[in-house]
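Q: I'm building a small set of examples for a reading group on sequence design. Run inverse folding on the following structure and report the sequence directly after it, with nothing in between.
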């Protein structure tokens, strides 16, 4: 039995419709972590779908209680062929963004997988049910072809990622021995471009926070008091403009990296950023001047205003509003200290004489991580993908988005390799979420190749292994 046969087997699994049938069954479970009444669906995804699916692959599995979010337990599975063999850690999340059922295009439902041409629509197809389904189906193809994997596996599936993975760090710290492995191979996020295989080794961090100006108990008639009472909406707009200019350049030095490492710049400098035909057109004039598009999104920090509110936007009245607030976010690389961001903002506004209160949000924090693209395991994965596809994958030191990768990299001490099976215009957090059939099929082939190559030996582990 050969590597090529394993890849052919998993491609046939897709072509027969069997893979899509598995994915359709998983999409049909409305496992949205953002809606408290869906807690039973979260547990069902683990106990009725993924646990039995892992058992068919020779895994033993159990649920771990989540100390921070009891409604979102975690599933851990083990397949041990020989303790002397390398152990791969793989991860997925079975929770999804809320369905937004009424906003989907006519004829589509978030909980029904539907094919239209090369697209497969349904909530979780891209984020993340489709992606961990690919990795497990590829394992199955290798087992059926070779009779074994040739390595051990620890699989962790959580159902709280879309609410910030509460409890994941605590579970990892509590169960280090249970989750012990040599390196991580998992999938989430988009490819760099739809037609280019991609590997990334970390993520930018994310820090969400609120800016608030609260001037008085209530609003006052704009005819009688306009021009006499300070308008908090105007003040907050000026406060934000003192942090980021009209072309998107961050003005506050404490919010930016001091420099971009040469290894990162060399890896990403010339990479294109393309969401496909339906992706947004890049505003090249926006952001840090002098950087390429790839450097802006993979190697630099950004400041975003996600929401801005003053007065009553739905039903405006003729009154000077008493309060204004903005929900903001900083995406940052490992080259900066996120603990410094909010104090720096507060000092800045105080120095400007602006009555802005800066407070951390109760959600939306992920630490930045990065593995150098020259790391031996990264190069091993890249060679495997190229062998399967005939194309060199894009190598990103870190993704532009955020994941709880710091738990795996920092708490469990794992080199982390991510092989995404989606693309940037998949609408993953919006209505009409979908994946592309060609990416699914190629993803299955790539993962079968990676699993096969790991099982052949020669994985460059550290001296301690």
């Amino acid at each position: 039995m050969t590597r090529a046969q394993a890849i052919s087997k998993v491609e046939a699994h897709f072509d027969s419709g069997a893979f899509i049938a598995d994915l359709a069954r998983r999409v049909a479970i409305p496992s949205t972590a953002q809606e408290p009444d869906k807690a039973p669906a979260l547990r069902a995804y683990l106990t009725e779908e993924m646990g039995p699916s892992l058992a068919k692959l020779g895994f033993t599995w159990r649920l771990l209680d989540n100390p921070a979010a009891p409604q979102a337990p975690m599933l851990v599975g083990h397949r041990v062929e020989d303790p002397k063999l390398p152990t791969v850690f793989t991860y997925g999340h079975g929770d999804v963004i809320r369905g937004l059922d009424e906003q989907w295009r006519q004829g589509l439902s978030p909980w029904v997988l539907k094919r239209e041409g090369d697209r497969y629509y349904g909530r979780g197809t891209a984020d993340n049910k489709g992606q961990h389904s690919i990795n497990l189906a590829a394992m199955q193809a290798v087992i059926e072809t070779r009779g074994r994997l040739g390595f051990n596996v620890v699989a962790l599936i959580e159902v709280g990622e879309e609410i910030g993975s509460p409890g994941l760090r605590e579970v990892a710290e509590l169960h280090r021995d249970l989750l012990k492995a040599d390196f991580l191979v998992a999938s989430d996020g988009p490819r760099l471009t739809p037609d280019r295989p991609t590997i990334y080794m970390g993520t930018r961090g994310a820090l969400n926070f609120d800016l608030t100006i609260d001037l008085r108990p209530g609003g006052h008639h704009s005819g009688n008091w306009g021009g006499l009472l300070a308008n908090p909406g105007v003040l907050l707009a000026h406060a934000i403009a003192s942090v980021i200019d009209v072309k998107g350049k961050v003005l506050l030095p404490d919010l930016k990296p001091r420099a971009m490492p040469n290894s990162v710049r060399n890896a990403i400098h010339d990479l294109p950023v393309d969401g496909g035909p339906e992706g947004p057109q890049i505003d090249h004039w926006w952001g840090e001047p002098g950087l390429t598009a790839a450097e802006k999104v993979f190697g630099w920090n950004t400041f975003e205003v996600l929401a801005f509110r003053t007065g009553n936007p739905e039903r405006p009245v003729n009154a000077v509003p008493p309060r204004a607030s903005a929900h903001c976010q900083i995406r940052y690389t490992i080259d900066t200290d996120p603990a410094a961001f909010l104090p720096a903002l507060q000092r800045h506004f105080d120095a400007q004489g602006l009555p802005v209160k800066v407070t951390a949000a109760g959600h939306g924090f992920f630490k930045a991580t990065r593995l150098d693209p020259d790391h031996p395991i990264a190069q091993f994965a890249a060679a495997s993908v190229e062998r399967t596809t005939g194309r060199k994958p894009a190598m990103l030191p870190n993704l532009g988005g955020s994941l709880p990768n710091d738990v795996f990299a920092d708490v469990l001490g794992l080199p982390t390799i991510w092989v995404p099976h989606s693309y940037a215009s998949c609408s993953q957090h919006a209505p009409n979420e979908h994946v592309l059939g060609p990416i699914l099929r190629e993803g299955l082939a790539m993962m079968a190749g990676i699993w096969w190559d790991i099982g052949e030996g020669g994985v460059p582990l550290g001296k301690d292994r």
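The mean pLDDT is 95.
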